[in-house]
Design a protein that fits this description.
The chain is of the alpha+beta class. 49% of the residues lie in helices and 11% in strands. The structure holds protoporphyrin IX containing FE (HEM).
């Protein structure tokens, strides 16, 4: 087992990553047979408990460094885009599929796109969007009230994916798709199919799909073409609005309008191509959907398991909301401190993005390891926060650990190890929006319903498919007992 600090070791005395400990491998195949894509994070986390903070496993003949030391992880995340970047195969696969955007971009392209995307999530923008987020939250409440009245169990994650699509498209594109009231829509399933294919292709030993398309590849390409068609409709509508009212170009009302204005910018450094506009629309749709829906679904799971947590959330919501049915703005939502703590604890234990795929841009060292340009690594974002050296009683769900001031003697609490949204210059730009969504849905559920598991005997399992979702989660909402 190798446990390391963050000291920089001269390249000459650093070790090659192939000499690190790790699971035994087969010739040619490496550890491929031991990796089930839907359990990737669990397998890698399990190996880190055996082999330590830095170990190597093999995808075919390629070594992959796995990192879960908090200082080293922080260094890798901070030194982007210059020293480290996302896997180049991830960028290739995403761009080949036509949704290259701020998530996959690197270098100057990333800097330009990142600046624009950040403008959609400023406190002022989120305040302006609060009305539409409230409307969408009330629609979800109506849907769950109807299910409660019929005594029906609810596939909460599916409803929440509709909720997050409605919120993202309303906030970022100024277009409310209202999937919640439609009830059934292929979009969430299409996004899942696309994610699974991105994962498979990015870690494939060679680009097999350029020679032979598997049924899953064909399904993903069909799904992508349908999603692209819907997003192009949204872009066309926004463009028509801008043409009708050119004055809006000076004060765009959504990120999409800002991108369309930038598309025509005179300064070539600020200009976005049509492909960049479409790529970023798809990127935000994909990045904002499953991540936040999965997190809220896991939050409902913890609420269902812990009536004491529900009771405390409800007491806080009743006290802070007064006569209002929902938080009346982002600042109001932030006053729900216990609810915020429940969201943070959910993110620590059930991080929607438990692993990140990164590589070295040039020859460098990481702790005691020498890395050649292009050397690949996987960063175990969740595992860092599951260690006793990061958080006291790390395996338990303890929302109180996030409340301030922390009681004396509360034990270890290292905020650097809370990495659910990443860290450094590429930290998730949707963090504030997703926390507002969790606060709105959490407050709505605590105020209106008792939530329980529909089948307490059925296990809820972690399933990895680019994000980490609760498989088998079915809940029952009943009208709140007064
Ligand atoms: C609970 C919900 C969410 C979680 C756990 C989450 C997590 C993450 C993580 C771990 C990263 C990578 C950060 C890094 O490389 O350091 C990321 C990046 C990103 N997220 Fe989120 N995210 C969430 C919600 C959202 C939402 C709501 C949006 C937008 C609508 C969004 C948009 C993005 C984008 C565009 C990036 C790429 C940023 C870049 O590479 O510069 N995310 N997110």
């Amino acid at each position: 087992m190798v446990n390391v600090g963050a000291e920089v070791i001269p390249a000459a005395s650093a070790r090659d990553l192939s000499t690190l400990p790790g699971p035994r491998r087969l010739p040619f195949l490496g550890n491929l047979l031991e990796i089930r894509p839907t359990q990737l994070h669990l397998t890698l986390e399990g190996w880190s408990r055996t082999y330590g903070d830095l170990y190597t496993f093999w995808l075919g003949r390629r070594p992959i460094l796995v990192v879960s030391n908090v200082e080293l992880v922080q260094r890798v995340l901070r030194e982007r885009p210059k020293e480290f970047r996302r896997w180049s195969t991830l960028q290739e696969v995403i761009e080949e599929m036509g949704f290259g955007g701020v998530f996959s971009a690197e270098g100057d392209q990333w800097t330009r796109q990142r600046r624009l995307v950040m403008s959609a999530f400023t406190p002022g923008q989120l305040r302006e969007s609060h009305g539409v987020i409230s409307t969408i939250t009330r629609r979800l409440r109506e849907r769950w009230r109807a299910a409660a009245a019929r005594g029906e169990p609810v596939d909460a994650r599916r409803d929440l994916t509709h909720y997050t699509v409605d919120v993202t498209t309303a906030v970022a594109f100024g277009m409310d798709m209202n999937l919640i009231e439609r009830g059934v829509d292929p979009l969430s399933h299409q996004i899942e199919t696309i994610f699974a294919t991105v994962s498979r292709r990015a870690s494939a030993p060679f680009p097999y799909w350029r020679h032979l398309k598997l049924p899953a590849d064909r399904a993903a390409e069909q799904a992508l073409s349908e999603v692209r068609g819907r997003m192009l409709d949204i872009i066309r509508t926004a463009r028509a609005e801008l043409d009708r009212d050119p004055a809006r170009a000076t004060a765009p009302r959504s990120l999409l309008e800002a991108m369309l204005v930038a598309r025509d910018a005179e300064d070539p450094k600020a200009r976005l191509s049509d492909q960049e506009v479409l790529g970023n629309v798809l990127t935000l749709l994909f990045a904002g959907e499953d991540t936040t829906a999965d997190t809220m679904a896991w939050m409902l799971h913890f609420m269902a398991l812990r009536p004491d947590v529900q009771a405390r959330m409800r007491a806080e919501v009743d006290a802070e909301l007064g006569d209002a049915d929902l938080p009346e703005g982002p600042e109001h939502a932030q006053r729900l401190r216990y609810l915020g703590a429940v969201a943070h604890e959910t993110l620590r234990l059930k991080s929607a993005a438990p692993v990140l795929f990164l590589e070295a841009c040039a020859d460098t060292t990481l702790g005691p390891v020498r890395l050649a340009a292009g050397a690949r690594m996987i960063v175990l974002m969740r595992q860092v926060g599951l260690k006793e050296e990061s958080f006291h009683d790390a395996a338990s769900f303890v929302p109180e650990r996030w409340l301030t001031p922390r009681p004396a003697g509360a034990g270890k609490h290292d905020p650097r190890a809370a990495l659910a949204f990443g860290s450094g210059p590429r930290v998730c730009p949707g963090r504030a929006l997703s926390l507002i969504e969790s606060a709105m849905v959490g407050a709505m559920v605590a105020r209106d319903f008792d939530v329980s598991l529909a089948d307490p005997g059925r296990p809820v399992k972690e399933l990895f498919g680019f994000t980490m979702k609760p498989e088998g989660l079915v809940v029952r909402f009943s009208p709140r007992r007064r």
